Every structure is written in C-alpha cells, then in structure tokens.
C-alpha cells in the first residue's frame, strides 16, 4: 500500500511538471518541440591534453612493469659520469683514452682513471647468452656460466676474502678431485710461495698494511665459452679488477693507491660420465694474472701496495698500461712476481 501511494504522488507531480513546461513553451515565440531527427547534440569540449597525458602515463607504467632495470639504470645514470662505458662483449680494439690527471679522493677513488666509467662489482662481468654445448643443454650452460661468474665474485669481490679471509665459497666451486689444484690450495694459505700463492686465484690484502676505500670495486671483462675436451663446456674469464686502497691506519686525507689486477681463468665443466667430478663444480684448466701497485718481493699470500716514498722501489718493473685490455694477459701462471709498473694509476 505504501509503495502504491508513493507512486501515485509521483505521477501527479510528473503530470503537473509537464503542464508547466507546455505553458512555458507556448509563451515563448519561435520555440517549439524539436523532432528527434533534427536534434543535434552539443559537441563535447576537446580535452586533447588530458588524453595525451593519459596515454603517456599508461606507457610509463608499462615500461616500469616490464623493464624496471632499464628505468633504474636511466635515473642512476642521470648524474653518473658521462664517460660510462658500455658492457664489454669482445676484446676491445684499442686502449682506453688517457684521462686528465686528477688525484683520487675518498669520495671519488676512481677519479682520473678509465675505471671511473666502468661498472661496479659483478655488473662489470659480461655473461653471454647460453646455447647447448657438448654434454650440456642450454639451461645447463646458463647455470654453469652463472656459477663461473659466482667464482669470480667470491674470489675477487667478497669483502671478507679481500680482507684476508680464506675463500671457502670459492674453493667449494672447484672440483675436489682435481689433485694439482687441491694441492696448491692445501699449501698456499699455510706457506705461500711462488708456485703456491693464493694470489694466483684470489685477491687478498694484508689487513695490517692496507684497507679498501669505500664499498666499490670497479670491474671490466667478460666470459666466453666453447666445447672443450671430451665434450666439456670450457669457460674463459678475462676480467680486470680495480681496488682503491689506502694505508690501514690512514686518516681522512691519506694517499689512495689503485691496485689493478687482470685475471684470465679457463674453467672446464666436465661430463661426469667421462671425468671424476662433483655436481656444481669445475676443473681449472689454466690461470694467469697481471698486477700493478700490488707490491713486490717474496710471496706473502697478499697484495701489499706501497705508499709514499716506498712506491719508488715498487715501480721497478716493466711499464704497462693496466687498463689496456686490447691484448692478451701478458703473464704466466707464475707471473705474479713479475710486477708491472703502471703508466697510469
């Protein structure tokens, strides 16, 4: 009943409104009802600016969703050095250009060197696309390449290892059945010598003598691979590490020296059906490195960069450009003692 009464009231009100409208139209000359075919709706106002802004917003959101790394790199590079180098995918044809002589500082420890434009840490080690090789599928090759780079990271970038700790994580990636390398590892940390020196594979600084400046180590290099003996995956790593260091007891404005190490490692991921190995480990085929500003003299198991007047005695080697990656690594397995004298720091 209530609903019926309310509906009646609404009908009465609607009828009255229609009468009022009819009277008003008759009172206005030239006005009359317009047929539906003659009706032209009002054109909406154009809002092109808002439309374009909306489309751009959608595009930005899509880029952020599907390529977040690119967006981070874009904004991170906005205030970065304009000389930033592209990733290395092949051996360069020439040496990096000479930078203006600038003294490195604690805040800018790579200033005045090509390393200022290099990537930091693992980001500077280029890993190629994986395809099937020998006994490994493409997915297995991809995992082996990742583990090969892991070895470079834990052997040359791990903060504990750089402070002189034993590189347990790196050692765990080496085939425990490879007798010659396991023999080297057994004696290298206990009694370093020319042929059994931890520096052949790992970067370490004597903590009582030198300390790293800041949290960044600059790197540049790449991994390559091919099929090796007995169908193995053979991975070659060629990477340069730049370590800014200062005296262990230095204050806020002490001398900064850059120890520069270029390593070449050849690793073999062997078919367990043909070679005695353990899952997730590789055998080391060869290793060699060049170093400048790393100290000289008898093997100690550490890089011992010289500072101040002591650097004169440390600069008695053959002149080398430590940033030149256009040629092969010039040393041999025992070349660590043949220290080069850097033509630029």
Rg result? 35 Å
Order of helices and strands: HHHEEHHHHEEEEEHEE
- The number of helical segments is 8
Report the count of strand segments: 9
Main sheet overview:
7 strands, mixed
Distance between the termini: 98 Å
In the predicted model, the low-confidence regions spanning at least 5 consecutive residues are: 1-11, 30-42, 63-82, 332-337
Q: What coarse outline follows from CA principal-axis ratios?
A: globular
Helix content: 25-40%
Mean pLDDT: 80
Number of domains: 1
The fraction of residues in strands falls at 15-25%
Secondary structure class reads alpha+beta
Q: What key phrases describe this protein's structure?
A:
alpha+beta; 8 helices; disordered N terminus
Overview of the structural elements:
α2 (48-66) crosses α3 (68-76). The strands form 2 sheets. Strands 1, 2, 3, 4, 5, 6 and 7 form a 7-stranded mixed β-sheet that branches. The protein has a two-stranded parallel sheet with strand order 8-9. The longest helix is centred in the N-terminal third of the chain and has 26 residues, at 2-27. It has helices spanning 2-27, 48-66, 68-76, 138-156, 159-162, 168-171, 179-188, 311-314; strands at 119-120, 125-126, 210-212, 218-227, 233-247, 257-269, 283-292, 318-320, 340-342. The model is unreliable at 1-11, 30-42, 63-82 and 332-337 (pLDDT under 50). It is α+β, with helices and mostly antiparallel strands and 345 residues long.
């Amino acid at each position: 009943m209530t609903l019926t009464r309310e509906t009646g009231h609404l009908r009465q009100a609607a009828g009255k409104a229609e009468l009022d409208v009819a009277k008003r139209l008759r009172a206005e000359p030239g006005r009359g009802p317009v047929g539906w075919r003659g009706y032209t709706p009002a054109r909406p106002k154009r809002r092109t600016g808002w439309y374009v802004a909306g489309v751009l917003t959608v595009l930005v959101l899509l880029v952020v969703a599907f390529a977040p790394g690119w967006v981070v790199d874009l904004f991170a590079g906005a205030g970065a050095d304009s000389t930033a180098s592209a990733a290395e995918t092949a051996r360069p044809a020439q040496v990096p250009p000479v930078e203006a002589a600038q003294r490195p500082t604690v805040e800018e420890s790579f200033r005045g060197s090509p390393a200022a434009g290099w990537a930091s840490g693992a980001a500077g080690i280029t890993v190629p696309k994986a395809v099937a090789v020998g006994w490994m599928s493409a997915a297995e090759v991809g995992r082996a390449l990742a583990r090969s780079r892991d070895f470079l990271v834990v052997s040359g970038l791990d903060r504990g290892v750089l402070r002189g700790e034993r590189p347990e994580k790196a050692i765990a990636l080496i085939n425990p059945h490879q007798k010659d390398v396991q023999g080297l590892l057994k004696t290298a940390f206990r009694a370093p010598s020319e042929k059994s020196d931890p520096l052949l594979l790992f970067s370490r600084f004597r903590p009582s003598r030198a300390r790293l400046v800041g949290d960044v180590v600059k790197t540049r290099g790449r991994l390559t691979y091919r099929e090796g003996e007995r169908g193995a995956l053979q991975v070659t790593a060629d990477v340069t590490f730049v370590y800014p260091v200062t005296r262990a007891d230095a204050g806020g404005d002490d001398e900064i020296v850059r120890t520069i190490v270029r390593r070449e490692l050849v690793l073999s991921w062997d078919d367990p059906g043909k070679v005695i190995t353990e899952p997730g480990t590789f055998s080391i085929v060869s290793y060699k490195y060049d170093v400048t500003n790393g100290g000289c003299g008898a093997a100690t198991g550490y890089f011992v960069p010289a500072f101040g007047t002591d650097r004169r005695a440390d600069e008695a080697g053959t002149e080398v450009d430590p940033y030149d990656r256009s040629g092969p690594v010039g040393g041999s397995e025992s070349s660590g003692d043949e220290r080069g004298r850097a033509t630029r720091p």
